[in-house]
Amino acid sequence: MTESRSSDEYIELHAASAFSFLAGASQPEALIERAKQLEMPAIALADRNGLYGAARFHTTAKKCGVTARVGAEIAVSSFGSRLAPPEWLPHQFPAEPPRLLLLCASQTGYQNLCQLITRFKMREATKAEGAATLDDLDEFSAGLICLTGGDEGPLAAALAHGGCAAARSVADKLTAIYGRGNVYLELQRHQQREEECRNQAMLELAASLRLPVVATNGVRYATEEEREILDVLTTIRHHTTLDQAGRLLEANSARALRPAREMAALFRDIPEAIANTGIVSQRLEFTLDRLGYEFPRYPVSEGETPEGETMDSFLARRVEEGVRKRYGAGAKRSLLAKAQAQVEHELKLIAKLGFSGYFLIVWEIVRFCQQHGILAQGRGSAANSAVCYALEITAVDPVGMELLFERFLSENRGEWPDIDLDLPSGEQREQVIQHVYERYGQLGAAMTANVISYRGRSAAREVGKALGFDEAQLARLSGLVGHWEWRGENDTMARHFQQAGFDVRHPRIASYLDLCLRMKDLPRHLGQHSGGMVICAGMLNRVVPIERASMAGRSVIQWDKEDCADMGLIKVDLLGLGMMAVLKDSIELIPRHYKKEIDLAALPEDPLVYETLRKADTVGMFQVESRAQMASIPHNAPTRFYDLVVQVAIIRPGPIVGKMMHPYMRRRQGKEEVSYPHPSLEPVLKRTLGVPLFQEQLLRMAMTVASFTGAEAEELRRAVGMRRSMQRMKDLEGRLRAGMVRNGIGPEAQDNIVQGISSFAMYGFPESHAASFALIAYASAYLKVHYLAAFTCGLLNNQPMGFYSPAVLIKDAQRHGLRVRPICVQHSEGQCTLEAEQDGSLALRIGLNYVKGLRQSSAGTLLAERNCHGAFLTVDELARRVPELNRKELVALARIGALNSLGAVEHRRDALWQVEEAGRPAGPLLEDSAASGRQKPAPLKQMTIEERLAADYAGTGITTGPHPMAYEREVLRQQGFLSAQELEGYAGNGRVRVAGRAISRQRPGTAKGFVFLSLEDETGIANIIITPDVFEQNRVIVTRSRFLLVTGKLQNQEGVIHVKAQLLEPFCCTCGQGQS
Amino acid sequence: MKEELYACVHAAEFPAQALLRLRTDLQSEPVAVLEGRAPLETVCALNRAAYQKGAVLGMTRLEAEELAGLRLLARSEENEAAARAVLLECAAQFSPRIEDVSRRTACNCVLDIAGTERLFGPPQRLAERLRAAFAGAGFRVSVAVSANFHAARLKAAATRGVTVIPSGQEAAALGKVPLAVLGLPTEAVETLAIWGIRTLGEMAALPEAELVARLGAQAAEWRDLARGAQPHAFQPIEPEFRLKESCEFETPVEQSDSLLFTGARMIDCLVGRAATRALALASLTVEMELAGGEAYRRAIRPALPSADRKFLLKLLQLEIAAHPPQAEVLSLALTAEAGQTSQMQLGLFAPQVPEPSRLDVTIARLKAIAGEERVGSPALEDTHRPGSFRMESFAVSRQLRGAQSGADECGGADSIRPRMALRRMRPPVPVRVELRDLRPVAFREGGRCFRIAAAYGPWRASGCWWSADGWNVEEWDVLTETNDGSTVAWLLVSERGLKQWQLEAFYD
Description:
The complex is a heterodimer. By secondary structure, chain A is α/β, with parallel strands linked by helices. Chain A is built from 45 helices and 22 strands. In chain A, 46% of the residues lie in helices and 13% in strands. In chain A, helix 22 (578-594) crosses helix 34 (788-797). The radius of gyration of chain A is 34 Å and the shape is globular. Chain A starts with 11 loop residues before the first strand and ends in a 10-residue tail after the last strand. By secondary structure, chain B is an alpha+beta fold. In chain B, helix 1 (14-20) packs across helix 4 (77-92), helix 11 (208-215) packs across helix 12 (218-227) and helix 14 (309-322) packs parallel to helix 15. Chains A and B meet through helix 17, helix 19 and helix 39 of A and helix 3, helix 9, helix 11 and strand 17 of B.
């Protein structure tokens, strides 16, 4: 133990951040920045029951030159209830356990703290705060320094409840657990009389027990102003309003991070309390730099393995087998030697970096998927690796496609490889996740967290509640916060409020606005990442605390994916991809109904598929179905797989903002000559026509022109991409230029190359990732073109996914010749199915899952009864045999025509008339008379076409009949409206009028306020462009009307047809009114 | 049996009609009436021009504002009540028996016009005269006459102008009327809508037994309504029972005794009138018109409704004594609210409590002396604001319970422990404080200077930062020595940021 450097030096040892969730008001970064301003050399973060903010606290502290100490406030149930105002005072404090402050003195201490938190968090059956017991503290006490906490600590509670004797007993217990030298009595001075009274009692206690005292400020926010935020968070935590919260709120603003001078003045009478902060801080030797995380190990001793087998040798053997399988036969045989050389190179590096275990763990997951018939495909930069390809983790051949391994892994990158696996979303993905838990144990694997933060809308809502706005006002206020991706100059919150009639100068509204803005980005609670799993072979709970997720059977670590990356924790992303589930469903349906086997890994290059893609007939296809993709794909005109790779990559915010899309498209169409910044770059840029599109190309450019190694090139990409360190960038540019000089490249070409690299590095897309997605895109296109029924069935059974609603998908499939049959209680299954038509073709039968208001359990019982005892004869029989079906469900079925096939049902209203009686049983006495009444015909008229359509849309969201616009066509044609199909053949270039159902509205961030609208009619989809001015004038019509009439100028750019709207009107389509 | 005949008057969009009735300048303009709290107002009524402009009911203010030229007015319930009174008055010229059947934003009344033929002519002529009379009063109404009460009501709501339904033709006359006029429950509306039943005629055509089997017993009633065959027990509007007495003085009155003399008579009358209905007076409102045009208004609310004339007069006397009118009185009015007379059952062994009426008089006397807000029981508020409390009305039973529980605690250790008392100074005394190193060392109060021997603080409290009622104070507990060597402990307070100090309290 060393002396403090100065008696005035003060280190804050007790600071909570907003990661104490609703009990702290500043981000960890803000605390560090404030500590830096105050020239505080170190600061300890202690959030409630967790280390949620520790990683980012540590990362920021390193940047700012402040030492980040690690600790946590731990709730201990054994100490009873924490201090609350006396009962004779009106207050609303709920009972909760007191919290101790534990600080990590050593790595052992850190590991114990993580285990302690994990212990009591995992003891809970569901996601909960939890609390430790004295036994837990005792078990995990080594390496920790214990401070007794302020108002929220056990000593304050004991003094209030049982006086000095109780406090002495608590102090004795803590001393017995942590040892005499490791317990400090904590003194806080927030200028409150009661607190000072307790401080005096603590000083007496400290003297009598000979325990040291230490000053802290129990910090809850970085600066005094943020006390307001804490008050708002407090009201949210206690479900009350600021006016009603009373003593729950802060008494003053004293819990800010205070300068050493101020703290020294406050504790002028107890200088040792200040001096001890420095002493304790120096005793806290642990920082997160020494996390103690060990790379996961793969158990190679399982099964029959040769003696002396290591992970490296085991991996090498698996890869060798894979290479033989992938390249040993067929067209790829010629690549065998090259592939062997590549994997040898990769394996060497993997072994050198010690990553073999990681590859094997992912390989094991993929193998599990294969054994259980689950489609799995690696995405991201892993597709650059021949090892991943050989292990069947990825499906893109990096040798054949000449992908660059260094983009995935390089020697001096100091970062773990990142492998993401796409799995079919839903049950199968959960099956894989549960397998990982099972294999590595509950304390060996966990999901990464996802910090849910306040966004514009949620902040607006919560602050509104705190200020006491009523429900209607809240809905209105939070509704004002726009959800468009693109925000114009006028789309500020203040402007929205003005438009809604609020006076932004009114103090309450002004403070509302101010608070909303300040609340944004503060963490609200912890969710779980969509698929990131951290694996640490049994010891993860020593590295980071694990807690229950709200989803049953899942556990989650307290850090999010960025924190994991910063702390060097390795994760595998098991991502759910709806299209994978569609592909899986399709390849199961195809053999059954088409009598053909499909191998997704060996789909042929089919001209018909490319022709369909060129026509932008891509509704339902993966990645190429969006409005922007449809608009650009005819320009790109893909004829081979690589064109699709480019297509997937190019319609992204990056390439569009980086202005790469248009040069590429112009060159693709032969409107611009293909040129290269330097002739030596031709091999690198040839396949993208001289326009650098992919990150891998940047690496290759640097390697080619300046003889960079792969690792150096990757370092350059990251330096340019992040723009973090100007100095580092300058050094790299110097090296780049020096390299180019050595290679004889002139100054002008050098400037071009440097400029080229700088401009696209920010926006480039990984080629491997694009290739992985392009594979799925091609598979989806192939299935749609050749197996439309199976593919559509898969799409409809995996909703919601993709860009279009089921109604649009069905209409598109029908336009392509698929017969879609309506829901029927005699024929429909739970999900959509395929049925054979009499002519041998296939039809799609809509499943009962599309009936709105029909419970899954009722549908299940209906199907079980039908399968067990045969078809239903009458409505009465259906109601009797399936008593789970309540009246509302029977009405829902009758209304959409699902009962039309039952005996004695002539039409939908006939069924409705019958179910109203069947749904209300008459009772045994009147059963006979009721039955006789049923023989009379229904007095209701048959539904008209319009009514049937409305009932379909209202009851299922879809219709299997004609499109609503088909019924309006004749009248529209007389008024000069063209259909979507007629637009394509329209010769003129003047004004046109179109009408249809708005199926998508987009305002992309890259489109400068333009709105893209898709109007569907019975012949297809018309694309409408709305300029910002026209949109502002017709905001309500564009955003609210389901059917629209558009008048505008037709634009036909090489087959891509748009109508630039000049006039927009709502259209009252009588047939589509029930549409949701 | 007496033959029945009813005329229904239907004034649609009544909020708009009530506002525009007297605003002839706006009648030709498109006008929409908004209701609800800003900024969530929605359109609740429109005139014809507004409909033509494209406005619809339920539009939000924002949407309505987008329609150029549309005048937006706020709904006024006061205005509507006045207009309704005029409408009923107008109807009363034709029949003494009127039933008010207004719903939502329409104003409807049905007149029993059986036997009025000699006075006003045949039904058609009476209906036209009715319509003309209402038009003269500024209302646009539709009138329907039928021997069936509901048939007249439903037809008037669904048609414009004048309709006379011949007896026995009710079902036919209602055949095309939309089902919405029945105002059925939502579930029934949904069911009938998917059955395709849109008019009363379609509803009437449904077989009764089957309909009842499907929609329940009330469906028979709906069907009868649709057929114009539902009977009705007429409930004419009764004159309002209003306890009000007023008196205008010939010469302005200055003396309160004169006022009380008149007031006593008025109270006698009010109590007597209430007593005829077995009621007592729950509250008494005194209104006076004062010279100079000012109005005087006070309310007296005894703890229990009372019919005790002397007691009520005493309360009135105390109220007037506590708040004497500031000018000569030109008129006096007493309005009373009636309440059930109540008797309190006293328990044999229950502690004796003051009689409620005597307690009321005592509290009223105290309030007259000390002020309205200064009498009652203090209750602490849930806030960090120092010294914050509110006055609650004095309640005997609670105080007794409190005293009892206090007595129980007397034996506890807490009660033995000496407690320091803080004596607040009201109002606080402004003082000048001398500071050294931001700590008070002396203060001056009037001509006296107190040297501070010890100072503890600053104790800080702040709150209500979100409203204009915010506070941010700093407190010091200071010890001063007196000439005789004893010490006095004071509480000094200053608003943070201001250099004004106050002596807030001293410690006993």
